[in-house]
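Hi team, as promised in this morning's meeting, here are the two structures we talked about. I've kept the exact order from the run log so nobody has to guess. The first one is mostly here for context; it's the second one we should focus on when we meet again. Sequence first, then the predicted structure tokens.
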Amino acid sequence: MVRGVERRQIFLDDVDYEAYLGRLSCLVPDLGFRCFAWALMPNHVHLVLQTGPVPLARLMARVGTAYAGRFNRRHDRVGHLFQNRYRARRVIDDRDLLGVILYAHLNPLEGGLVGDLTELAEFAWCGHGALMATRQPWPFESPARVLELFGRTPGVARESMLAQMESRPPKAE
């Protein structure tokens, strides 16, 4: 997870969101990572990644530096865009992985950017749509691997995922 400095917005319009996803589309596959879930919020980013042969720090630095420089030039600003270093934690098993995938994908719903799971499946700035097959996956996404975690077939996996998302208690305020 990475957040904007002083919790300020790091995405001001669709062009910003697309630029960040473009960087991920180049770097995640090139550096040997896999992305299981993601959500771009106005002032922070959630990524659920399987690391590759290079350290996570290298991927995050390359994405963050390139995006911040572009953002600053485009919006005529200077200085840091991101607050501190990214925050990460190791996933301990498949059950934990399922939990962090659901957590990341529920962020736009819990943040009030969408009203329900149907809207979430159409929300452009989250990986949930690729899993629900409402849009084509970005080059950095691994929807087939994620669906395998939830069920034997894509249809069963989607039903299981939605049931788990519906049954999760709301995040504490």
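And here is the second protein, the one for discussion:
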Amino acid sequence: MASKPSVPLDDSSIELFRKAIAGTRQLRNTGKLHTKRDLPLPIPSQSIADEHQALADTLSDYLPSIDMDKDEDAPYVRKGIPAQTLRKMRNGQLVVEAELDLHGLNKDRAREQLVHFLDWSRLRKLRLVRIIHGKGLGSPNREPVLKQRVRAWLIQRDEVLAYCRARPADGGSGALIVLLKKGTG
């Protein structure tokens, strides 16, 4: 049942309406309301998970042959990187452009996050980043779980030119300042 319009319709309005609906037919009233909604696009979640796992698996937990336990805070520098660059990194004279905080993550999740962060940084052509791995104070036996692993993972990445311990104000022994190759975007 149609309700009465609050404003009276003149003949021209009625004629205009009839022309607008010409060629249509009245729907049968079934008592059900049918609405068409656009369904969201499917997300290939398994493909995305497989891709993330493949990226994370590119970093091994194997510690390279260099003796990382001798000085756990020793810097890493690839050949050709000037000592002056490392000094500037240590002294906070270079601007950190992005940061990744791995606190509270297990090693598998941390590895995955590190891979994505390095790829993201490369795409944005970032040169200096901070990676916070934590000091291990919340870990079993209060030993750092990620500290050595993050260092080993970074060495395995071609885009990592150098890293050093962060200044105390920037995380100290719980963080690294990392120099990356110029990104290709």
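Starting points for discussion:
DSSP finds five helices and five strands in the chain.
The beta strands are 76-77, 98-101, 128-132, 160-165, 175-180.
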